Amino acid sequence: MRKRVAVLISGRGSNLQALLDAEQDAYEIALVVSNVPSAAGLDRARAAGVEAIALDHKPYGPNREAFERDLDALLVQRNIEIVALAGFMRVLTPFFVRAWAGRLVNIHPSLLPKFPGVKTHQRALDAGESEHGCTVHMVVEEVDSGEILGQARMPILPGDTPETLADRVLTLEHDLYPRCLAQLARTRS
Questions:
Q1: Among 57, 108, 132, 137, which one carries the catalytic annotation?
Q2: pLDDT string in tens for the chain (189-residue length)
Q3: Please, what is the angle between helix 40-47 and helix 14-21, to 10°?
Q4: What is the rounded CA–CA span in Å between residue 147 and residue 175?
Q5: Would you call 36 exposed, middle or buried from its count of C-beta atoms within 10 A (0-12, 13-18, 19+)?
Q6: Any catalytic annotation for residue 57?
């Protein structure tokens, strides 16, 4: 039986599209939630026949946990079993991470543990790295440091810029994320 997955987004939803397009027997995208009401990824979800909800974080002000408690209630109401972050541009509070422990997964544009956080492509170039890539990992309270489920690598080419790296890494992400999510769905009860 396929696991019911919710995908949390904040933007265009290109990784969401990869998850939707992947032929999987292990999971189904049952819900997409964006904290940004104008996120293009919501339209992608609706076009695929998936329930898409905007839950704007702004009315909550600095109370991130109140936003996440409402998000958690939404996920529980819809019998979600796994939560996949796909360009969800908010650091989650301990409340949400603990509530979804073992069932909360993210994709990050670097070869963790190198370059957690933001500006990963520039940081890889500045460090003189010879390769770069992406990592699918479990989410824990410390940012970008959970169990690694998979990585995809590529060489850094002469003349690469943060923009060219971002484009090439995104292609890797679109292949890696569906495979790792399917494996997680098969192994988690």
A1: 108
A2: 899 999 999 999 999 999 999 988 999 999 999 999 999 999 999 999 999 999 999 999 999 999 999 999 999 999 999 999 999 999 899 999 999 999 999 999 999 999 999 999 999 999 999 999 999 999 999 999 999 999 999 999 999 999 999 999 999 999 999 999 999 999 976
A3: 10
A4: 19
A5: buried
A6: no
